[in-house]
Model the fold of this input.
Amino acid sequence: MKEKILEFIEKKQFAQLKGYLQALNEADISDIIDELPGEDGALVYRLLDKDVAADVFSRMENETQERLIKLLKEKEVTEIINNLYADDAADLISEMPAVLVKKILANIDPQQRKDINELLKYPEDSAGSIMTTEFVDLKMDMTVKDSFDRIRKVGKDTETIYTCYVIDAERHLMGVVTVKELLLSKYEDLIEDIMEKSVIKLHTLDDQEDVAKTFDKYDFLAMPVVDQENRLVGIITVDDVIDVMHEETAEDFEIMGGLEPSDDSYFNTTVWEHAKHRIVWLLFLMLSATFTGAILTHYEEAFASVPILVSFIPMLMDTGGNSGSQASTLIIRGLATNDINVKDIFKVWWKEIRVALICGSILGIVNGIRVAIQYNNIMLAIVIAITILCVVIISKSLGCLLPLGAKALKLDPALMASPLLTTIVDALALVIYFTIAMHVLAI
Amino acid sequence: MKEKILEFIEKKQFAQLKGYLQALNEADISDIIDELPGEDGALVYRLLDKDVAADVFSRMENETQERLIKLLKEKEVTEIINNLYADDAADLISEMPAVLVKKILANIDPQQRKDINELLKYPEDSAGSIMTTEFVDLKMDMTVKDSFDRIRKVGKDTETIYTCYVIDAERHLMGVVTVKELLLSKYEDLIEDIMEKSVIKLHTLDDQEDVAKTFDKYDFLAMPVVDQENRLVGIITVDDVIDVMHEETAEDFEIMGGLEPSDDSYFNTTVWEHAKHRIVWLLFLMLSATFTGAILTHYEEAFASVPILVSFIPMLMDTGGNSGSQASTLIIRGLATNDINVKDIFKVWWKEIRVALICGSILGIVNGIRVAIQYNNIMLAIVIAITILCVVIISKSLGCLLPLGAKALKLDPALMASPLLTTIVDALALVIYFTIAMHVLAI
Done:
């Protein structure tokens, strides 16, 4: 599709290009504009029909949006902001330079300006910041027929019409009714009689991660957001929640990989920013690992008299790290999905110890046999086998206890993933190893 | 809520319990039954209204469903299967013992039986296996009013009514129309004129991961699934896709943590199963790490003459592993979200090398200064600083090249995460370290 569009542009067949664009889906057009050079992107954007332009714009990558804003006239930008849903517009504006924001806000619809200002005042990552203020509101004394009239009137400008919220004169949330229920009811039925009165709702200051969990639990297409006086101020739709889920997952992956979380895409982050997101953890972990090295200097005489001992260090460190990561990955995920709770700590630990006994025994025996055959040294084989068993038990224990402990202390359990855990387990593995070796081998 | 329900059960106030349950949301009831002991769970389940019972059942955990099936009479089980949406029923049946499946299938509605058998024949994780066969289908010559009549007639039994699909006499997919469009049109308008003709659709054999990506791109609430002759066979709704997203994310986390992926929850996996999911990777990585150990034996004379060299091994191994994991985490995530493509390989590598230069220089200088001061040995400090820089460059390079290489070979990039990468980087780190040390220190 991209090639075809570039061809139209090159041949200056703009009328044909306009027709071609009308056959494409909004998501595909925004993907293409993302990939086109700035000027061509602006050209294609200007050829779009008014009613799809805002949708295309809201689907583009942040960088493309910023590029386009710079190329378009102020009047065109104002029109985009006017046509976006208020939540998307607020997202966009919060990324713009202050001087441009001021100009734009001065020119747009008063209602849209009010909605945007409203949304901008909520803290980042709160339900208030991701909600939209455009929805279908009904009154209790309306009939089903009145409701359809209301949907027809306001529906065109709202993000969803399928879930309608019932409010009283002071905008208190009284109930919820879906279009499915409306369609399956009689025209003369009263909203009051068919609405669901016990509404599951969100509060403006709820964390977006909790919002995602609530959607996940109830499978709603939309949920209402109320303020502290139970007044309906907005709704959150399932597509926004899917974005939040992706954001939260990406954050977990990043923290577990020893990175500072970042919202930007890989290529849109500069080399310096990448380095900045990585260096703090690397420095911290490197300096922590020097303590592990300091431990080794205590056992200098051990590996001076039995040099072969040194060659097992990498294997023991890696096996400890890997055993621990397996446990911590499962626990961190389980905590994220509410599958595991902090109160289960002893149940989890007991399970991990039994798993560690099985895995540690197998690994110990396999490696013990290998060492016995390769070096023809039974005592060394026993040292390695016992060390592996102990290291696996310790690392699986820490792999479950550290994330659970972090959660109990209201820290992010993902911090206790592989990088930090490995550093801690390494130090313990070496102490265990040389203690056992010095006793068994009588060094 | 659970306490209240247990109190009702204890006092045998079943009528009151029935009333209490009517005020609760289906998702909350299923959560409570998940937590109740088997008999109490069955008791609560039997008190539910017919029309919510199936919904509650489909939201329960697999284990609770199996427990309940064992406690209920065959007639009750048949009723559950009849009332579930076909996709949920097929999921449930595929987990049951064959003898029970045969009995149940013999007793249920012929239409439901046909739907279930249809779904059971698709491969696991395909679009066909997660779709539902119940949806609203319209004809091109219907008016908007006819369509509403049709929705009223079949809508009660379909998972969603908000997206309706237009088919011809041979069930070929001709178009799609949303209830929003129907509501905003005139009653006498023809479906043919208001439907969207270029339909984005899925095929029965599409992988569920691609299904999730398509939903993500287009933000649809439902998508049609067609067979090879473009006949409409089912639809997939956004709530099923959210489940798929969670499944795929969990799988990525597990593979990246060095675990074999598993669908079961942490507590519902036995100790033996946990051990089985972990031992293969642990064994493989442990034996790989012994090669790293073998490398060390080559340098025995080096650390025999300068024993302090051994104490830097853990720090160098960990720093290499962590630098590599940072890169591989970003690349694996980028590949999963289509943010990075295999064709970007050189762009990514060049970026990682520059990041590595910055991070490696900082780490090298910091640690070099520490060594120079602590051991009063400039040459040793130079060895450590240069080694760190080289190790960071190598590990960041492998951290991006290995996942991209795996993807190019159609393997899962997540396999190249921390555990395997660390093992490879460790070996290289030691070779680099001792090569540099022996040259600079002239051992």
